[in-house]
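Chapter summary example.
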Amino acid sequence: MKRDNLITFFVLFFLLTGCSGSYFKFGPYRNAEQAEEFLRQGKFDDACESYRKHVEDRLANKDRPEWENPYFYYLIIGDIKLRDGKVKEALAAYEFAESKKIDSQLVSDRYRYVAQWYEKKGDFRNAMAILQKYQDRDPLLFDAVLDRVAKELTKIEDSGASSQKN
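The structure predicted for these 166 residues follows.
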């Protein structure tokens, strides 16, 4: 009889957890897992909202480790916004993460990603504007990237000027 009860318990447990036994679907990371699922489905706004809920949940958790900074997820939100072409929203998320003491190197990397995003689109002026705005975060690295972008912009402008002369 005890064996039958145990089997019934496990069958119910697996059915209730979607046969996966995933602690995350009902635990403290359910919103993060849901956000990842939304990403797989291409539902970027829903993914961002789930990550925001996850941050709220983690901040409300009194047992959260002292070293954990849930605002880290705002870097991911910014990455999603950038991937979706919403540059201003991406920058706002990165700036928010920075204001909440997320590692400065991680944040400055994101500002450079935005500049690279503009570069890939051939928008060198906006790439330079981003690099100049956030240059103080990592002057040596940003200056190197600024130099590269400025050279590319100069090439384009010079080729346009020479083609106008011909």
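To summarize the output: The two ends are 95 Å apart (CA to CA).
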